[in-house]
Fold these 2 entries.
Entry 1:
Amino acid sequence: MAEPVTVLVANRGEIAVRVVRAVRELGHVAAVVVSDADRDSLAARLADQVVVLPGTASKDTYLDGAAVVAAALGVGASAIHPGYGFLSENAEFARSVVAAGLVWVGPSPDVIAVMGDKATALQQARAAGVPTVPGSDGVVPDVVTATAVAETIGFPVAIKAAAGGGGRGIRVVDSAAELAAQWDVTAAEALGAFGDGRLYLEKFIRRARHVEVQVFGDGHRFVHLHDRDCSLQRRHQKLVEEGPAPGLPDATRADLHESARRLAAEIGYVGAGTVEYLYDAEADSFHFIEMNTRIQVEHPVTEELLGVDLVQEQLAVALGAPLSFDQEDLVPRGHVLELRINAENPLMSFFPSPGTLTALTWPSGPGVRVDPGVTAGDTISPYYDSMIGKLVVRAADRAGAIARARRALAELELAGVQSTAGFVGAALADPVFGAAEHHTKHLEEQLDVLVAGLSSSSGGPGWSVAEPASERTVDA
Amino acid sequence: MTDIVDVDSPLPGVFFRRPASDKPPFVETGDTVEAGQTLGLIEIMKQFASLNSPVAGTVVEILVEDGANLDPGTVVVKVRPSDG
């Protein structure tokens, strides 16, 4: 075992708990930084040392990089683990950690910067031979060129405004005639909305699945840790994840894994990362979306599938150890599902439901793992994310895992806040999911059906959900 | 003479008087409001709830500052009903 060092966990909630546990299992000392609101949190209770940053707002606490580095130096820490979210993919913060003489548990700041930029990440992916979404090579000058490009990549195609973003300025067309009819009006709209009428084309994947590959590197050796499917999502918020991704042909799966491993090798990756793809089941093709240069919420799916500990591995590699496994050691065992239990009300557009958990008893029994952020009596505060915890189950096959997940959910006892548990149960019982014929828009399309069976909630006299009309946006 | 209505927050969170930092407040003291009109926003976990006036009337007092933390039950605005 390595010489004990202090590791500062710069995060909160379930991932802080998860990292504190890994640090302690490795024989190291776990310190956490917490906001005023989190001073009595489960992560703080489990840690060896706690540094309280005054304030509750994220920007004054978990997003204040200088305060976090100062806290690490104050407790004599050797390393900082950033978890996910907050500062985990902030290259400037990673640089400041390294500049302070601390070990950064993650890839190099330069790699974070390159993969965090959409354009440079795509360049890297293409350089590594990773398939990207087919489209025009930049801006398309006119409708004649656009038609030629569209016929090469195949309809449907999305006409996109070069200056657009966040789903705005996009029009999907199914034929050359439709493209010709829509081209000028799309350009005019783009000019009106963004002051820039330039357009480009991308293949439109109508029914995509979200499939991702976990990778790991130590700067010398690079492995893939198989795949996860996160297609059950609502407005890009994943609710259920599983591994392996169901229904992928063997050859496609092998290509997918190898492309992710190649990308990790190409950029000399250090630590845990995830390469995300859209999988087009109809065409049996996959396309790179982005790479996340951190541990992910759904990492337990891979841990249970392969029998590895990704967080321990992150810490060991960051502290200088070589990768502890080879590619051939990583063999999937059955099927794993992860369910996110959030304090949200599915009957009110999943509006957050902060409050005190008057009861919380997790399920147990064969094949059940719980990664909690809180325990009974704790309060889900209104200032941060709404996760109560994650329920992870493993069984011999997918049908067995779904049955086990439903059994486990039925055992969950939770009171004091509204939660996503009932909705997740309904989603698991959906025959379309059972047959693995779902896609990333399926939950949204089936929302009314899935919430129909849920018991009504206490609603809210005197207030209403202010979305999406509210113009307010929040930092981070 | 109708009793003044205390509009309290049903939710914990952060109170905002404006729809955006460069926009005017939803209401000022002395404004006439309709029943159901937005008095402010409460931010909870990066989402927003609209705090609505339970009655038509006149805003008499705004007790919570823009950006302040709220607990459930905190009186945010006082409204004098317009009739009855």
Entry 2:
Amino acid sequence: MELNKKSISELKELYSNGSVKPSEVVRACLDAISNKDTEIGAFLEVMPEDVLRRARELEKESPEEMPLYGIPIAVKDNICTIGSRTTCASKILEGYVPPYNATVVERLLDAGAIIIGKTNMDEFAMGSSTENSAYQITKNPWNMEFAPGGSSGGSAAAVAASMVPVALGSDTGGSIRQPASLCGVVGLKGTYGRVSRYGLVAFASSLDQIGPITRTVDDSAIVMNVISGRDPFDATTIPDEPGDFRAGLGRGVEQLKIAVPVDLERWDIDAELKDILKDTIEKLEEAGAKIEPVNFPDMDASIACYYVIANAEASSNLARYDGVKYAFRAEAETLDEMYERTRGEGFGDEVKRRILLGTYVLSAGYYDAYYNKAQQVRAMICSRFEAIFSANDLVMLPTVPGPSFRLGERIDNPIEMYLSDIFTTPANIAGIPAISVPAGLTRKGLPLGIQLMAGYTQEEKLLQGAAMLEKIYKFNKG
Amino acid sequence: MLSDDEIKHIEKLARIRLDGNAREKFKGQLSDIIEFVRTLQKVDTTGFESETRKTPFKPFLREGRDGGELERDKVLEQAPENKNGFFKVPPVIDKD
């Protein structure tokens, strides 16, 4: 019995009937990590002693009262964890140990989960390949020469390689869904405000959301049930009770209206992915869904809008790394020189590029032309989505235009890298929930993903549709 | 293409110092990215106001009670330098 390959619901069953103990499950995951992670590089830190101690403590408790009893979870390194380093894969936060836990971490621990370690990412979640980490490269478990995607590449690779059943990621423009698609796992970003951002190191505050990366749709729903909800420490969290995200899973898609963008041909979508999409449409129709062609918001405008807003917000959020309060400082004679040298030496290239771009679009003389214009485009995109969801339940499109790419292939071409997010950024701009479901493999053996989006706060419907896709694809790493 | 003066001005605003090689590389890359986001200006947004907050819910305020604050010493421990309960920084006022 390979315990590290079990889903949350399978593990819950095994705990309930007393056939396994948390320390056995944790040991299976730690063994998988020590066997595989030297090559894959998904984890920045693993805490074996703490993990085993926590597992043994849990053994004194009853599994029935805790929804994530004994479930090992990996956490992206931009989510604060007391007593263990939280570096955002940046040199500027090297060795930083937060004095508090993120709200999601508190909720996971209260639910009985075991935090097994911190995962690699693009520095400050800026990137789509995890190559922007200051510490290490993460490889795609399906083919070690390929990128795992990003920025939550470590989390996606850890789940894909069965080192853990679940990992948390964060998604500002696709950073959960894109690596999930490239690694053949499920990645969910909830409605903006569904999950508290308290303790998530801020990148772009109007777009950031934490969400689960799992091997099954059901597991995503289980984790969302634990981490969602209002938090007094995040004023943007949704006040309504979230309800049970598992409720719609077995419901099928009869009568569901699923919108598919009419002009997908405009983008260079992988041929095998196009076939999958076509086949999915037929199968969904057979299952009783109504497929509606719709005019999607302008995706070219959406990605440009995203890069203006995200980087403007980032340039402000990252102003706090000045060599005064956290970790790294470059020595200098004066305060100004210390700021400039600390930031010049402490940030990697992509982070510097984005801060400079964000600073530029907010600067006098350019603010209206870029930032203000981007906000108007944002309003337009939101209104287009409102129209789509007033007549449809879900939108379906690829998560990424194609499969993974070779490590190193895009690193020197920022714009090509940005275009990998073309289908994911619209959901962040509109604040709506979206999920990537693994759909199949290319002939070369690389995973492809299909994405669903739903209207504001409609995660239940989103997961209902995702469960049907999962049933159609029967995707399993085996 | 951004000029040398323009990129130096942005560096100054962002408090990021680039060395000469990085500045050359960034000048090209940033110019390309600016060109790319400039496509926004072609989008007809007539009738749409600039929107900075995308949520139909009103952000709420926490009750005015204490709780959740961080311990001063634990916060200062993470700073590169601290002294007598303060963050320590290089001189702010010129000696001359």
